[in-house]
């Protein structure tokens, strides 16, 4: 994952790692792969190319967002209308690295990142 965090998703190292990790899944004949890590969606194109058109990729993030929205609505906590958006980011380690990586992926400065102990 350090390559993804560094924004180096189109490198021969990534391609080699994907081939190594995906080969057993291809051999097993999978038809669906759940992208079960926050880093994997950034590699979805490369994963899809490696696995081919017969394997469906599922990004659980969209389902998680839908479930969160439903729960907020059920609890009457959903925001209605347009309001200014603010974000707070908390990480368990390396806040500077997170801020840099998030800025690259989101293409904007995300502001302060706070480190917490869990």
UniProtKB/TrEMBL annotation:
Alphabetical list of Pfam families matching this protein: Asp_Glu_race
Higher taxonomy: unclassified sequences, metagenomes, ecological metagenomes
E.C. number(s) listed in UniProt: 5.1.1.3
PROSITE patterns linked to this entry: ASP_GLU_RACEMASE_2
The protein's name in its UniProt record: Glutamate racemase
InterPro entries given in the database record: Asp/Glu/hydantoin_racemase, Asp/Glu_race, Asp/Glu_racemase_AS_2
Entry keyword set: Isomerase
GO function term, MF aspect, one: glutamate racemase activity
